[in-house]
Write a structure and sequence with these properties.
Number of strands: 16
Radius of gyration: 26 Å
Bound molecules: 5'-O-[(L-methionyl)-sulphamoyl]adenosine
Structural class: alpha/beta
Strand order of the largest sheet: 3-2-1-12-13-7
Number of helices: 18
Shape: elongated
Strand content: 15-25%
């Protein structure tokens, strides 16, 4: 049986339309999902939408809609964008779905019955946009430490989760599982946060109604983060012991942005501990994008709309840029100039040229029928070795979410291919019929290296890789399982590849 691999993105709030930050996590998750499928895994890739809470309720009131009408409208924008971006999710969960609401009510009741949820009274500073309570000492100049907006004092009857009880157990888990929270810098922040002491967490609200009612006390709705985090198990069928649940939980990796790490690395694991469920294997927090040097915000009107980027540059160029430009885990800056630079140099020049040059030569010198190679010389063997080593390097990088490094390793092989053409000068070999065998070997190595490159690249640039593999005459064997040099067969028909990426002027 295939090994299982479960990965998730955050579920996105429907009070905002999708922007580049949402696309970033989702594209990264898609690359990982596609890569794991290529490696023979049975992958469950989940994304979805977070539709409850005061934020959504307020946005709906402003828009003159019910919260569900708003959610129905905005969720389509997300789903349409994921389709355009080639996102291969297996499931899309909405927190307003029955399957989810049922599971959330169940886990709440379960923890309540076990004694780790109790009814009390809450008074503290609340930031509505962030849906977060803050203590006096956490405020910065009397404002929300996350978004710097004003906070208000709220007192309400509330159900509490006994998070304080799990402080030592959580710390012990983080310390004994070095890969649980990544990257390392973020792990250290969480360790310090937990060591400062965990307070019990208010997990219900009575000041608004748009949420999942607390079982047997519907004056309360369940706190939106308690509701939202549970999506990762309700999608698998929890509380039923479904085949999916048994096969895919615990999750292999939750991919998230750094701003929501505390919810995933502190709240979520302690909820799971209280419910007696296994913890996620890994939570990986990526950095944030600024736009042309500035924070992205509605008020600055610089929000980058992914559909606009796709219209202008194409899907695969956007996917490539997002993952190549900045190491996953660090903050980075988006600019049109750097995107155009990446397209022209990496995609048009290096990747596209290599394929069109080599397929054109195969057509010209061998009528597009791939010849068998003769004995490989030193430079052929060097290209073969580089290509083979790259497969292992990429695997290591992707296990560490080092997408940019993985792409660098692939591009080293592409550069090596371009250099190999220049050094072996097929056009000179072609002039001498006695060197036909040597020419055949060069063509074989060149095309075989690219077949392997494009199979791996199909995780990153699915449409581009498909075109490339078609022109390389690659049939159904587009998987990495058991893949080795030599898979390209003598006699395969090679067709001249069109430019994969047109250069962008200005
Ligand atoms: N609904 C919650 C998540 C619940 S998960 C159980 C939420 N939604 S969100 O729509 O506000 O944000 C989702 C993601 O977008 C977060 O991971 C956040 O880091 C990411 N980004 C928002 N702006 C971003 C950038 N400027 N750059 C990169 N990612 C950014 O939070």
């Amino acid at each position: 049986m295939k090994p299982a691999f479960y990965l998730t993105t955050p579920i996105y709030y429907v009070n905002d339309v999708p922007h580049i930050g949402h696309a970033y996590t989702t594209v990264a998750a898609d690359v990982l999902a596609r890569y794991k499928r290529l490696m023979g895994y049975d992958v469950y890739f989940l994304t979805g939408s977070d539709e409850h809470g005061q934020k959504v309720e307020k946005a709906a009131t402003t828009a003159g809609e019910t919260p569900l009408e708003l959610a129905d409208r905005v969720v389509k924008r997300f789903q349409a964008l994921w389709e355009r971006l080639g996102i291969s999710n297996n499931d899309f969960i909405r927190t307003t779905q029955e399957r989810h609401k049922k599971g959330v009510a169940h886990i709440f009741k379960d923890i309540l019955e076990k004694g780790d949820i109790y009814l009390g009274e809450y008074e503290d500073w609340y930031c509505t946009p962030c849906e977060t309570f803050w203590t006096e000492t956490q405020l910065i100049d009397g404002r929300c430490p996350d978004c710097n907006r004003p906070v208000e004092k709220l007192k309400e009857e509330s159900y509490f989760f006994r998070m304080s009880k799990y402080q030592d157990q959580l710390l012990a888990h983080i310390e004994s599982h070095p890969d649980f929270i990544q990257p390392k810098s973020k792990r250290n922040e969480i360790i310090s946060f937990v060591k400062e002491g965990l307070r019990d967490l208010s997990i219900s609200r009575t000041t608004f109604t748009w949420g999942i009612p607390v079982p047997d006390n519907d004056r309360h709705v369940i706190y939106v983060w308690f509701d939202a985090l549970t999506n990762y198990i309700t999608a698998l069928g929890y509380p039923e012991a479904t085949d999916d649940y048994k096969r895919f939980w615990p999750v292999n990796v939750h991919l998230i942005g750094k701003d929501i790490l505390r919810f995933h690395a502190v709240y979520w694991p302690t909820f799971l501990m209280a419910a007696g469920l296994p913890l996620p294997e890994k939570v990986f927090a990526h950095g944030w994008w600024t736009i042309e040097g500035q924070k992205m915000s509605k008020s600055l009107q610089n929000v980058v709309e992914p559909n606009m980027l796709i219209d202008k540059y194409g899907v695969d160029a956007v996917r490539y840029f997002l993952l190549r430009e900045v190491p996953f885990g660090l903050d980075g800056d988006f600019s049109h100039a750097s995107l155009v630079q990446r397209i022209n140099s990496d995609l048009a020049n290096d990747l596209g040229n290599l394929l069109s040059r080599s397929t054109a030569m195969a057509v010209k010198y061998f009528n597009g029928i791939l010849p068998a190679p003769a004995v490989l010389n030193e430079s052929d063997l060097a290209l073969k070795r580089r290509t083979e080593e790259m497969i292992a390097t990429v695997d290591g990088c992707l296990n560490d979410m080092a997408f940019s490094k993985a792409l660098q390793a692939i591009w080293e092989v592409i550069s090596a291919g371009n250099k190999y053409i220049d050094e072996s000068a097929p056009w000179t070999l072609a002039k001498d019929p006695a060197l036909k065998e040597r020419l055949a070997t060069v063509m074989y190595c060149l095309l075989e290296s690219q077949r392997i490159v494009h199979i791996i690249l199909s995780a990153f640039l699915p449409a581009t890789a498909e075109k490339a593999l078609d022109s390389l005459g690659c049939g159904e064997e587009r998987s990495l399982v058991g893949m080795a040099w030599g898979g390209l067969r003598e006699g395969t028909t090679i067709t001249k590849a069109e430019a994969l990426f047109p250069r962008i002027e200005g």
